Fold each of these.
Amino acid sequence: MTKNFKMVAKTLFGMEELLAQELRQLGASSIEIGTRNVSFEGDTGFMYKANLCCRTAIKILKPITAFNVFTEEDLYKKIYEMPWENYMDVKGTLAVNATVFSDVFTHSQYIALKTKDAIVDRFRDREGVRPDVDLDHPTLRINIHIDRNICTVSLDSSGESLHKRGYKVESTLAPINEVLAAGIIMLSGWQGQCNFLDPMCGGGTLLTEAAMIACNIPPNLNREEFGFETWPDFDVDLYEKIEEAALKKVRDFPHKIYGFDTDPVAIHKAKENIKSANLQDFIEVKQQDFFESEKENEKPLYIVFNPPYDERISVKDVEEFYSSIGNALKRGYPGTQAWMITSNMEALKFVGLRPSKKIKLFNGKLESKLVRYEMYEGSRKASKQ
């Protein structure tokens, strides 16, 4: 039985509580919530499980040491002294990523370069050859985090960001990040208890994440590789056991997930992505104008969507477009919970409905609001009575 060690899961702003909840449900201990991160403890098998099963994590880092640094020479010397030969072979490749919050160290790329120099110099001095750098598919990804004078060195167990699930074969203009999509659905409280609609589905990301949540499918099942798979101590048998146990928890889904888009190209791309995720049995997409649609039946319905913005909607149309969203919801979708994310705060005023909830998030670098509109059967007053 391997012993527990500390790990740090990175996430998006506003997703920290969700990630802590996911880690708790998966069996993590010593959970502490930070800003855009959650630290926790678990063993090697749990590290594999967190990468495979966390919907709202971007990275799972394994800190291996921390020390004080006051100068660049300090950093170089302490990195050089670390036994890097325990973590990679000289024939392997490496990539270094750095984040700095310090008055002394202000340039993250320079810190990454200095770290890389120290590692390759150690190999060259000991073995006469140096490992290469490969930014795309390295054998070992190293994360340096400097907070004032404390430097934490971590191994990146995820490799590429965990939002890259592996199912997206077709990309649309301004697609929503998969981690953000999963987080939005989880924040809405939808877990597969009723029908789900994305009325402006684009490439189908929200639909795909919704189906994986409903069926309890591990979000990163379609990924080609995790960072830990190229580590010297990777235990393939243990990973296969973890994967098998996660797949046993997959459940059936008795409701319907469907999406609309007015763009036939987007519909084609959504279908390809859904097929790539093997979810075509659970999701239906069709070319349809949401503004001319209405609810199919009396059953409860969750609507979750990311309306087009910037280049996909011209400035003069914004007022009319958001006003049409409000009208469509009022006219065609009684008995519905509708959730929408937008970075255009002004535009929200034109929806003509009062949100019952607002959550601050970031869509990329854009500050956004996730808002909930509750569309009651009849009037709100009557529904409360």
Amino acid sequence: MSDYGQVIEECKQKLEYIANDNSVPRNIRRSANEVLETLRKKDEPLFLRTSSSISVLEDISNDPNIPVHTRTLIWDVASQLETIPVDE
């Protein structure tokens, strides 16, 4: 699972960048923080944390007000999270 731990850490770094970027609309930053909190919950199974995170990321990536560079980062994070198998 250490490989997946590395994936989660990379995703958290990108989400922290989004959450702290003042050029990103507040609702998008709030959602990035929500996903960060979800990924940090060690008491929930990894597949639950990743699937709920992917769902939120897909929702915010469709926001018409999201800057292009942020949308690309969101898609990158979602893609990385999708590499984590459901049976972990």
Amino acid sequence: MSKPMTKTQLVAALAEEMDTDKKSAGAALDAITGLITREVSGGGAVTLPGVGKIYCRERPERMVRNPATGEQFKKEADKVVKMTIAKALKDSVNG
């Protein structure tokens, strides 16, 4: 498995793909990231065509165990961010 692409590498690739400078590509990436963050933290979902859907899911209160001590305790209800991968992306990865 190769290393993940860094933000700098992503901005450079985006700038090349858009035929623009890195500053504009970085601003576009930051704007998209901000939009996704606001929408998902507000309880909504964002679909990135060809990539997948990012959404927030609520988990109920539950009993969990500390693996170091074996002690069980109640964990409060919380929210987690999930992503469902698009079929097009899965198909392209699997050949």
